[in-house]
Specification:
Elements (H helix, E strand, L loop, with lengths): L1 H18 L18 H12 L13 E3 L5 E8 L10 H9 L3 E4 L20 H15 L3 E9 L1 H12 L5 E5 L13 H10 L4 E3 L17 E3 H20 L6 E7 L7 H14 L4 E7 L19 H12 L2
Parallel strand pairs: 2-3, 2-4, 4-5, 5-8, 8-9
Antiparallel strand pairs: 1-3, 6-7
């Protein structure tokens, strides 16, 4: 009886306590195989584009803006969760006009013309990291130095690339999802584990508007709990690795949104602190859009409700460069 009572009391406590343990995902490491020249880069990009079949909206397909040869700078732009390359198209044009070859890849499970697709329920952290690896491999053939930029999920992938790969010069992380605002700090492992273990749930970005979500029409109106779990697993891998060694990228800039209702700005600050501690001078800039501007988490898409490109773009252009 006593043993049964002890098991009844202790086992749930151990299970609950385990939810709070730091994330330590395995297998989320880079396997670089960079393109050796411009022609090989184009072949790699064609392979990436081959996944953009008829189910993918035309504006959401992987996009390359190139000068037709290697350039001094290459900029990779990773879009956010439930979004697609169209999110970065306007900003990508501006970066391209400054002399860089620009690659805007479509992250797997995104960009379907059917915005009510259930593809995000199959989100997988390993798939996304392998994809980011393949994108950077291609980008290495497009020019001399590579800058990776990303927003939200894309910011997480850009951070993973910056931590894992030594052949990336700069990373610009725009509101990366290392943690979520509704469960900050020590609650992140709990949310991640529960979202990964429990059956997938789709959540409307706006429960009133639902499928008629205002703003860009290429954005899915709902997100998947499994997609959040996959993103946070990558964030956990980045933090774990950052505790053990410096980032591969030589320089990084962090951009946050004051009052961001989507991501945990504290987790972003922790990553910046770890990188700066392990290699002083890595973090070249930290910029936060002021909370009083009441900006959307998405400060990139010019059609986003709560966006203000006239205010945000000059900052983004300056920090991204080249």
């Amino acid at each position: 009886m006593r043993r049964r009572l002890l098991a009844f009391l202790v086992l749930p406590a151990l299970l609950v306590g385990g939810l709070f343990l730091p994330l330590s995902p395995r297998g989320l490491v880079s396997h670089p195989h960079p393109a050796r020249n411009y022609e090989e880069a184009l072949t790699r990009i064609a392979a990436i584009k081959s996944a953009d079949d008829a189910r993918i909206a035309p504006e959401c397909r992987t996009t390359l803006y190139t000068y037709g040869s290697r350039t001094r700078h290459v900029v990779v732009l990773f879009h956010g969760l439930t979004n697609c390359p169209a999110q970065f198209d306007s900003l990508g044009h501006l970066v391209y006009a400054r002399g860089a070859n620009v690659l805007i890849p479509r992250i797997p499970r995104h960009g379907f013309a059917d915005r009510m697709t259930d593809q995000l329920a199959e989100s997988d952290a390993r798939e996304w990291c392998a994809f980011a690896d393949s994108v950077v491999d291609a980008a290495r053939g497009l020019g001399d130095s590579v800058t990776v930029v990303g927003l939200s999920l894309g910011g997480t992938l850009a951070a993973w690339v910056a931590q894992e790969r030594r052949d990336v010069d700069r990373a610009v992380l725009i509101a990366p999802m290392i943690g979520v605002a509704v469960a900050p700090g020590g609650w992140t492992p709990v949310v991640t584990r529960l979202a990964a273990l429990l059956p997938n749930q789709f959540v409307w970005w706006n429960s009133r508007q639902r499928a008629a979500l205002a703003g860009p029409k290429h954005v899915y109106p709902r997100f998947a709990s499994r997609a959040v779990a996959a993103t946070l697993l990558i964030g956990g891998a980045i933090l774990q690795s950052a505790h053990e060694r410096p980032p591969g990228a030589r320089r990084a800039a962090f951009i946050t949104v004051g009052g961001d209702a989507a991501v945990d700005n504290g987790a972003i600050a922790e990553l910046a602190r770890l990188w700066e501690k392990s290699r002083p001078g890595t973090v070249t800039e930290r910029f936060e859009f002021p909370a009083e501007r009441r900006l959307s988490h998405d400060v990139v898409d010019p059609d986003q409700v709560g966006g203000d490109p006239a205010f945000t773009y000059p900052v983004l252009e300056r920090i991204i460069g080249p």
